[in-house]
Specification:
Blueprint (H helix, E strand, L loop, with lengths): L2 H7 L7 H8 L23 H20 L7 H12 L9 H7 L20 E5 L5 H13 L5 E5 L10 H7 L3 E3 L3 E3 L7 H4 L4 E3 L14 H13 L7 E6 L3 E3 L16 E5 L11 H7 L5 H5 L6 E9 H18 L12 H9 L2 H4 L5 E4 L6 E3 L39 E3 L5 H22 L1
Parallel strand pairs: 1-2, 1-6, 2-3, 8-10, 11-12
Antiparallel strand pairs: 4-5, 6-9, 7-12, 8-9
Bound molecules: 2-acetamido-2-deoxy-beta-D-glucopyranose (NAG).
Keywords: Membrane, Transmembrane, Transmembrane helix
C-alpha cells in the first residue's frame, strides 16, 4: 500500500489508491457478510488412536531394520521415516493466558473459499485490494516462486473490489483472502477532502461491531494483523507488508536467525544517506504528533519503514498490540496535522525504546541494503538531491545485469520494497519472475 510513501514522491496531488477507493465506495453500504461462525478450528480432531498405533508400528519397523546385518536395503527405512515425518505433529494447545490475549482481536470473518490457516506455518500478511491480477502476481507469484510454502494472508476488501481474474488467481495460489468491508466518513465536497485522512470503520470484522472511531485503513490493518497472528503457533514467524510495492527474490523465512538469543522483531530502514528523520519533512511531521521536540530528538535517526516488519509470532503480537494501543491513544489522524500514516507510530515506538520494552521482544533494525528487506524508495523522487540520484545499476550499484536487486554485499535481496519508485528499472524483472513461476506451475500441472 505505502500511502505514506506516495506523499513523498509525487507531490501533493497524489492520493493513495485505497483512499480514493474507500471514499468512492464510502457511500455504498456493503451487503456482503460472511455466514460462517467465528470459529477457526483448523486441525482435524481425529488424530489419536490409529495414528499412534501407526507411529508405533513404524518405529518398530525402523528399529528392526536397524538390527539386520545387511544395510544394503535402506529404502524401506527411508520410506518409513518419510512417512513418520509426514504424520501430523502433536497439535499445539494455546495456554489460558494466550487465549485471553487473543480474545479481544477475534474476527467473525474467515478466509474465502474454505481455505484454512496452517497454525504451524510461517505467514506473510498484507492489506491489498482493488488491484489487477498482474499487480497481485507481482507480490504473490514472486513469493511462491521462492518456494515459500507458508501462508499468505490478505485483507482483500469487499467483493466488488475484485478485478477480472483475481478470484481465480488468488484461489489458485491458496491465498487466505478476507473480504472485510468498511464505511468511510463521506467527503463533504470536492478534491480537497481526498487529501485528508478520511476515516473508515470496519463493518464486518468484529462480531459486535467496530468499537473504534473512524480511522484510516492504514491504521486498522494492524488490528487485522493482530487477529491473524492468533491463528499461529509461537514457533511460527511472520512478516507484515505493504502490498503494492513489494516483491520477492528469495524466501525471507529461510534467512532469518530463529535462535533463542537472536532478535525476534526486525525493522527495516530507508536509505540514510538520503533520508533521516531530521531532513524528511514527512517523517518529522508525523513525529510532531508527540510534541514539537520529538522529531528534533531523533533527527539523526534512520527512518524505519512501517511497510515491512518481520518477527516471531509472539513478538509480532506484542508489536501490533502496542501499535494499536498508541494509535488509540494518540489518534494522530484526527489531530490538526491529520497524519493518516502509520509510519509515525512505528518510528516513535522504536526510537523511544518502547518496542524494546515489550515483554519477550528483542527488536533491531537493519539499514537499507543490509537486511532481509531492501527498502529502496527513498533513493529516488523529487526530494533526492540531483547529485545523489541515478539508476539502480550504474549509480547505486544494486542491480545486476540480469535485473536482480542486490544488497550491498552483492547478494540478491530477499525482499524488495518500494520498487515502484524505480518502476521502469524493475518492472520487467518482476513480471519475468512472476510469469516464470506461473509457466512452470502450469507445465507441472
Ligand atoms: C549521526 O549518526 C551517525 C551514525 O550513527 C553518527 O556517526 C554521527 O556522529 C551522528 N551525528 C550526530 C550529529 O549525532
Amino acid at each position: 500500500m505505502g500511502s505514506s510513501k506516495e506523499y513523498h514522491d509525487r507531490r501533493g496531488v497524489s492520493v493513495p489508491l485505497w483512499l480514493v477507493l474507500c471514499i468512492l465506495g464510502g457511500g455504498a453500504l456493503v451487503l456482503f457478510m460472511p455466514t460462517g461462525p467465528a470459529t477457526h478450528s483448523v486441525v482435524q480432531p481425529k488424530e489419536p488412536s490409529n495414528l499412534e498405533a501407526l507411529r508405533a508400528e513404524l518405529d518398530r519397523e525402523i528399529a528392526s531394520l536397524g538390527k539386520t546385518e545387511s544395510v544394503m536395503d535402506t529404502s524401506k527405512a527411508a520410506a518409513a521415516s518419510t512417512l513418520l515425518a509426514a504424520l501430523p505433529k502433536k497439535k499445539y494447545k494455546k495456554t489460558k493466558a494466550e487465549k485471553l490475549e487473543d480474545e479481544p482481536w477475534k474476527s467473525q470473518l474467515e478466509p474465502l473459499w474454505g481455505l484454512k490457516h496452517n497454525p504451524s506455518a510461517d505467514v506473510v500478511m498484507a492489506l491489498g485490494f482493488g488491484y489487477s491480477q498482474r499487480e497481485f502476481a507481482r507480490f504473490v507469484s514472486t513469493l511462491r516462486r521462492t518456494e515459500y510454502k507458508g501462508d499468505i494472508v490478505l485483507a482483500a476488501g469487499p467483493p466488488e473490489k475484485f478485478k477480472r481474474g483475481v478470484v481465480e488467481y488468488l484461489r489458485g495460489e491458496g491465498v487466505l483472502a478476507y473480504q472485510f468491508s468498511y464505511e468511510c466518513v463521506k467527503a463533504k465536497k470536492g478534491r480537497r477532502l481526498l487529501m485528508t485522512p478520511a476515516g473508515c470503520i470496519l463493518t464486518n470484522w468484529y462480531k459486535d461491531g467496530d468499537k473504534r472511531s473512524p480511522r484510516p485503513l492504514a491504521i486498522s490493518r494492524y488490528e487485522m494483523y493482530r487477529t491473524w497472528l492468533s491463528y499461529y503457533e509461537p514457533t511460527s514467524w511472520g512478516i507484515v507488508f505493504d502490498f503494492r510495492d513489494t516483491f520477492f527474490q528469495r524466501d525471507p523465512f529461510t534467512l532469518v536467525d530463529r535462535s533463542a538469543k537472536a532478535p525476534n522483531l526486525h525493522l527495516f530502514a530507508e536509505n540514510r544517506q538520503v533520508k533521516r528523520v531530521g531532513n524528511c519533512i514527512f517523517n518529522s511531521g508525523w513525529l510532531r504528533c508527540w510534541g514539537k521536540e520529538t522529531p528534533k530528538k531523533f533527527a539523526n535517526n534512520s527512518v524505519v519503514c512501517s511497510g515491512s516488519t518481520m518477527g516471531s509470532v509472539p513478538a509480532l503480537k506484542r508489536y501490533t498490540e502496542r501499535m494499536v494501543q498508541e494509535m488509540d491513544k494518540m489518534k494522530c489522524h484526527a489531530t490538526p496535522a491529520r497524519t493518516e500514516s502509520d509510519q509515525g507510530y512505528h518510528n516513535y515506538l522504536y526510537d523511544t525504546g518502547e518496542l524494546a520494552k515489550l515483554p519477550g521482544v528483542r527488536v533491531t533494525h537493519h539499514e537499507q541494503g543490509h537486511g532481509i528487506v531492501n527498502t529502496i524508495g527513498a533513493m529516488n523522487g523529487f526530494r533526492v538531491p540531483k547529485h545523489m540520484k541515478g539508476p539502480l545499476d550504474t549509480h547505486w550499484k544494486i542491480k545486476d545485469k540480469d535485473g536482480w536487486i542486490l544488497d550491498y554485499n552483492g547478494e540478491r535481496s530477499a525482499v524488495v520494497h518500494q520498487w515502484d519508485r524505480f518502476h521502469s528499472e524493475c518492472v520487467r524483472h518482476i513480471d519475468r519472475l512472476a510469469d516464470d513461476y506461473m509457466r512452470k506451475k502450469l507445465a507441472a500441472a
